[in-house]
Amino acid sequence: MNDTPQAMTIAGTDSSGGAGMTADLNTFSAQGVYGANIVVSVTAQNTCGVQKVQMITPDMIMAQLSAVADDLKIRAVKTGMLGDTATVETVAKAMTKFNFGPLILDPVMVAKGGAQLLTDEAVSAVKTLLMPLVTLVTPNLPEAEVLTHLSIKTTDDIMLAAQQLQTLGAKNVLLKGGHGDAPIVLDYILLADGRHFWLRTKRFNTARTHGTGDTISAAITAQLALGHDLETAIIAAKTYVDATIRDGILVGHRYGPLNHLAQSTIKNQPEVIYDI
Ligand SMILES: Nc1ncnc2c1ncn2[C@@H]1O[C@H](COP(=O)(O)OP(=O)(O)OP(=O)(O)O)[C@@H](O)[C@H]1O
Ligand SMILES: Cc1ncc(COP(=O)(O)O)c(N)n1
């Protein structure tokens, strides 16, 4: 009954289908993993920005989590937009109550269009309640700055920030380097045992990057649900997100969605770098 690899996303919806829960579920499917979905917020948004947000009550969020825990065999779980403190508290409570496997925390704070998706108050709840439960945290550079209070400009700053995220409790860290306009994109990985490396790819000169962060964290979650180790999962996920940008689709007018069905013939494996 419960043999099919199953993963779960705890996130907000995106009415235009490019980010949030839809990106997560499309990614799970593309990796051959069944996806359960816990809705914590409904957003009215499109590729130009977020117009309206409606949070779901903690009671309803817990009911969804409990229903899934009672029936499915979730092997890995990720969080996306969590919105407010009450939601973070509810999710943290559920993570200690139920066994959903490794927890991947994508600390979504601000949408590409600029809308705030996590209140300032909730940032401290994420740090104190969720970080100690996390297998992997996947901030982009601005999110890492908020979580660590560091100004991150150089590769040394990135490595220091990753260490600080570990002191907050996250066992492993993926610091995403998608922001900025350098011709090369560098993601940094610091593993629980202290090993660390960079993944280097070419930057695609496109604004069609709505949901890149959701997609890479969902792909890692799916790879873990398939039974792969974390290092393999991260490299496979990076290869996948690269293909979803490369094989772009034309939807909407601004930050267009990725192609989750990318069949790229050029599977651009990231270059793994140990010393920078
Ligand atoms: N223009 C690009 N070209 C190549 N890779 C990119 C580009 N933009 C993002 N990436 C990759 O996509 C992944 C997500 O990184 P990014 O820093 O964009 O996350 P994010 O800001 O959390 O995304 P989002 O908020 O859109 O969900 C990383 O592996 C990053 O290297
Ligand atoms: C519901 C939801 N979750 C996450 C994002 C982040 O994605 P992006 O930074 O690409 O806008 C979003 N826009 N909406």
Number of domains: 1
Amino- and carboxy-terminal Cα gap: 47 Å
CATH fold title: UDP-N-acetylmuramoyl-L-alanine:D-glutamate ligase
CATH top level class name: Alpha Beta
Mean pLDDT: 95
Estimate percent helicity. Answer: 25-40%
**Strand composition percent:** 15-25%
In the CATH hierarchy, the architecture is 3-Layer(aba) Sandwich
Helices and strands, in order, run as EHEEHEHEHEHHEEEHHE
Number of strands: 10
Given as residue ranges, the uncertain stretches (5+ residues, pLDDT < 50) are: none
Biggest sheet details: 10 strands, mixed
Strand order of the largest sheet: 3-2-1-4-5-6-7-8-9-10
GO biological process, one term: thiamine biosynthetic process
Family: Belongs to the ThiD family.
GO cellular component, one term: cytosol
Organism: Leuconostoc citreum (strain KM20)
Description:
- It is a single chain.
- Helix content is 37%, strand content 21%.
- The protein has 276 residues and is α/β, with parallel strands linked by helices.
- It has a ten-stranded mixed beta sheet, sandwiched between helices.
- Strand 5, helix 4 and strand 6 (136-137) form a beta-alpha-beta unit.
- The chain starts with 5 loop residues before the first strand and ends with a strand.
- The model has no long low-confidence stretch (mean pLDDT 95).
- Adenosine-5'-triphosphate binds at residues 19, 112, 140, 176-179, 185, 187, 201, 203-204, 209, 211-214, 216, 238, 241, 245.
- Adenosine-5'-triphosphate is lined by residues 19, 112, 140, 176-179, 185, 187, 201, 203-204, 209, 211-214, 216, 238, 241, 245.
- Belongs to the ThiD family.
- GO terms for molecular function: ATP binding; hydroxymethylpyrimidine kinase activity; phosphomethylpyrimidine kinase activity.
- It comes from Leuconostoc citreum (strain KM20).
